[in-house]
């Protein structure tokens, strides 16, 4: 099923130190509301079955997002909103907004939580939002962003004590987090395949990767094009047929790194997105991989 991260606006009311938003990108861009509606209809026609409203903080444009959720429901698209929960200060505030979204057909709320988010948003807001979801029968989960350091233990314990559904997610060392000290990790020698859902910006640029991939500034490897010059169908077809994107999905970035000559001992010191950046944000490595795509295709067990 085709899925997409829909960046209606890059505006956020807080400024987390770990945010993948790059400092050099203006943080107040917003999509025209009617354009967004037209794109959603076009997406449904192109077989997009799931949209995640993410990027900045979607609740800053609550009425507009609620309307877009309703439209998605009408055209048969599954919807998720990713939020920092600033709006859930009280159980009542939270209840009002969550029940409206549920009525409009929202399928899932993803609540962001971390020691960086919680410098600006009280953790009880996350609790209120989760409780409202439970009360309204709205699927939710908490995305617990962590660098796996001991500092995060009390944050994890809070979620456990409250019996909330959460999934740890590693910090992506891009954007503001690019300046963080790299963890000294030794991972398993795992494939690191990546689903790669595209990301649409408020300026209608579409990228093949919704996370760190829109910030590969040396190569622009993941940029697919702009929806003013291309149809949704064309850009999705591009992401589905590009051989290197396909290899990221099927072979995984670890196997590609090994193909380029990286030592196994070095590969296991990188997290998935860092390894991806090391190869695909390097003009030399990318040129080589493009030239050797058939050899890479044959690089299998
Ligand atoms: S991580 Fe999320 S909540 Fe924090 S600044 Fe970035 S968009 Fe806003
Ligand atoms: S591994 Fe690459 S394609 Fe996958 S999320 Fe990270 S940057 Fe994007």
TrEMBL record:
UniProt entry tagged with the keyword Ligase: no
Sequence ranges assigned to domain Radical SAM core in this UniProt record: 9-144
| InterPro entries with a match to the protein in the record | Aldolase_TIM, Radical_SAM_PqqE_MftC-like, rSAM, rSAM_sf
> Is Signal set as a keyword in this record?
no
Query: Which Pfam family is one of those matched by this entry?
Result: Radical_SAM
- Lineage top rank: taxon: Bacteria
Q: Which Gene3D superfamilies match?
A: Aldolase class I (3.20.20.70)
Q: Which UniProt keywords apply?
A: Iron, Iron-sulfur, Metal-binding, S-adenosyl-L-methionine
A single Gene Ontology MF term assigned here is:
catalytic activity
Protein's UniProt name:
4Fe-4S single cluster domain-containing protein
């Amino acid at each position: 099923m085709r899925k997409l991260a829909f960046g209606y606006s890059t505006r956020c009311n807080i400024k987390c130190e770990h945010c993948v938003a790059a400092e050099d990108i203006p943080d107040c861009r917003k999509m025209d509301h009617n354009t967004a509606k037209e794109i959603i209809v076009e997406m449904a026609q192109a077989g997009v079955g799931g949209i995640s409203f993410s990027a900045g903080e979607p609740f800053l444009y609550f009425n507009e997002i609620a309307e877009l959720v309703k439209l998605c429901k009408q055209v048969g698209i599954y919807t998720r909103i990713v939020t920092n929960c600033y709006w859930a200060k009280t159980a009542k505030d939270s209840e009002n907004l969550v029940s409206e979204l549920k009525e409009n057909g929202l399928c899932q709320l993803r609540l962001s939580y971390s020691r960086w988010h919680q410098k600006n948003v009280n953790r009880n807001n996350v609790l209120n939002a989760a409780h409202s979801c439970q009360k309204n029968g709205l699927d939710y989960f908490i995305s617990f962003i962590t660098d796996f350091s001991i500092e995060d233990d009390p944050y994890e314990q809070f979620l456990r004590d409250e019996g909330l559904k959460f999934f740890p997610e590693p910090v992506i060392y891009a954007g503001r987090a690019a300046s963080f000290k790299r963890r000294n990790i030794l991972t398993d020698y795992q494939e690191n395949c990546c689903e790669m859902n595209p990301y649409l910006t408020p300026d209608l640029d579409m990228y093949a990767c919704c996370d760190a991939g829109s910030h590969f500034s040396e190569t622009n490897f993941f940029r697919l094009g702009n929806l003013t010059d291309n149809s949704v169908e064309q850009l999705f077809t591009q992401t589905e047929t590009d051989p290197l994107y396909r290899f990221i999905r099927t072979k995984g970035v670890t196997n590609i790194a090994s193909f380029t000559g990286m030592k196994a001992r070095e590969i296991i010191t990188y997290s998935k997105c860092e390894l991806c950046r090391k190869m695909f944000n390097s003009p030399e490595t990318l040129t080589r991989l493009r030239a050797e795509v058939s050899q890479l295709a044959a690089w299998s067990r």
